[in-house]
């Protein structure tokens, strides 16, 4: 039996790392990517390979066409097919919109949204050819409701949500499902700027009483990527009933 395969972007740490390991545990060959931290990505590669699967890694800004194309082409060449794409790469920026430079805006849009377009475009032809495939985009509850002092981040996640719904309609006739997970407060490095007091206050607002764990997200993403094929075009909040 030919092993299935998955591409996970932004996989050097946090949610992306947990997702890569979750799929490896299930026997998937895995292609992982990060923007620049090769040593961290190498460590993830070793963890993935410890589950007896093949892993390739690629370091580069996949918000740029050259790097996104190379990542996906390398995975297709190594594995022969791509079953799942997880668009996870993302950065945040905290601050007033009036203080945000154009360079900062462009960086967030490129990393969070353009990368989703480029990687999706790269894998779609092979998925259409095999008449199957899954694309799962990692979004945020701020893409649904918006967040003060995170306007650019919210805008990119809102863009991902609309992208997901539109692409799902486009690809449904080819038996390719496209969904997004809108994460709430997840215990990652992205939230390490919070003080202990701020974190406790935020946890008190979440009915489930805690931040989500990266392993929680990974298990949920795997379930979506391997579940019923009638689920497509959905933006699924994963926030412990927070919002």
Automatic annotation (TrEMBL):
Highest classification ranks of the organism: Bacteria, Bacillati, Bacillota, Clostridia, Lachnospirales
Protein's recorded name: 3-oxoacyl-[acyl-carrier protein] reductase
Keywords: Lipid metabolism, Oxidoreductase, Steroid metabolism
UniProt key word Oxidoreductase: yes
GO BP, sorted A to Z: monocarboxylic acid metabolic process; steroid metabolic process
Family from the record: Belongs to the short-chain dehydrogenases/reductases (SDR) family.
Organism, as annotated: Anaerosporobacter mobilis DSM 15930
GO molecular function, one term: oxidoreductase activity
